[in-house]
Amino acid sequence: MDHARGSRTTNLAGTKGYMDPGCVTTRRASKESDIYSFGIVALELACGRKPVIHEAPEDQAFMLEWVRELHGREPLNAADQRLGGHFDEQQMKCLLNVGLWCAHFEYDRRLSIREAIQVLKFEASLPLPQLDTPRSSHHTPTMNKAAALLSTSNGAADSTG
Predict the structure, then answer these.
(1) Which residue range forms the structural domain that includes residue 133?
(2) How far apart are CA 97 and CA 129, in angstroms?
(3) Is the pTM for the entire model greater than 0.85?
(4) Nearest C-alpha neighbor of 158 from the set 79, 106, 97, 103
(5) For position 115, which CATH number holds?
(6) Does the residue 5 lie in any domain?
(7) Ranges for the Protein kinase domain (predicted)?
(8) How far apart (Å, rounded) are the C-alpha atoms in residues 57 and 114?
(9) What is the mean pLDDT of each run of 10 residues along the chain (161 residues)?
(10) Does any domain span residue 8?
(11) Number of structural domains the chain divides into
């Protein structure tokens, strides 16, 4: 094996629900596809459910779609029901928001892992993601292009929108 030539992906492996749909079509992994998976894990932690539930009603079978639907109306309804409402609302909204940004439809609008960690630590703020369509005609700023949105003057950011 010639290590100087670099690595090459020959087959992708992943678990349904965690794998970026773009990876399936392009057959290429990337930082953005890893961040998508991170977003799914963040949502899984917040919601207390698996990304795909085959026996669930169609509108609830895919966690990401279910959270996107709830996010526009009642985002905290996506929180793990086993918590019985005993959680910090700002932290839960932050985790849900980070998960949605990381699993954004458009890979170039996803957060970097550094940005996600800054927001989760409340060191930066984050706008609510546009969730209306997979290819939204609305411009939602990327975090790299909207550095001003990530900086706060007092160190405590409102990442709930």
Answers:
(1) 14-150
(2) 7
(3) no
(4) 97
(5) 1.10.510.10
(6) no
(7) 1-126
(8) 36
(9) 54 71 77 93 96 82 91 92 96 96 91 95 83 43 37 40 44
(10) no
(11) 1
